[in-house]
Amino acid sequence: MSQQTDPGRRVFTVRQHVVQFSGGIGSFAVAVRVARRYGTRSLTLLIADTGIEDDHLWRFADDTSRLLGVPLTKVADGRTPWEAFRDVRFLGNDRLAPCTRLLKQVPCRDWMEQHADPADTLVYVGIENTKRDRARIPAIARNWKPWVTRFPLCGKREHARTKEELLDEARALGIAPPRMYALGFAHNNCGGTCVRAGQRQWKHLLEILPERYAHAEGQEEELRDLLGDVSILRDRRGGSSRPLPLSVLRTR
Ligand code: SF4
Question: Containing domain of residue 232, as a range?
């Protein structure tokens, strides 16, 4: 147990520490820091399964679980992002991605509501200490209310570590980082087919994992048959914005 202060300056006793464990290196580093500081008896590694994660994400998650001696608490909506897009009749894209809410936030919040009292629980998020990521903190903290959030990698006592330094931390603890980083992806999420990624990542996916690109392209085509001229990417050349289907990006 520890005493903490919430945003309203109220002092409360923490009995439960829940790490939003995404399988990314940031949340790994957070889990390790929370375990070192508070022990593991009241630590939860909460992870949402989107159904299209890279296999190595689960290997990395299992390795982390073994390292800390904390079982994974896995939640799942049961749909993949593609199935969710069909259900809500909207194709996620770099501006709006309902899959995050449906497949990650809702199942995690459902679990929290059943198992974690906001009065004595801290939620930890593995936001990395970059200007771009730090800008996301207020919105993430707002979304998690009434739970109080902490972002240990952005704390005052923590010097800003590069992703490579965080990957080295995992290696030093005997854990091989998820292969998506070594393959040149910035994030280890949804197997490199995150709809929020830009053209650069999709081109990289086509080059490195063409079969995965082909699957995403097929899913997008099915959604285009259902919804019309929609696409994950936009072509913004020449001052206008047009749909840029993955099939077109591939043939360019
Ligand atoms: S990682 Fe990307 S594709 Fe996967 S759920 Fe989140 S926003 Fe959707």
Answer: 198-252
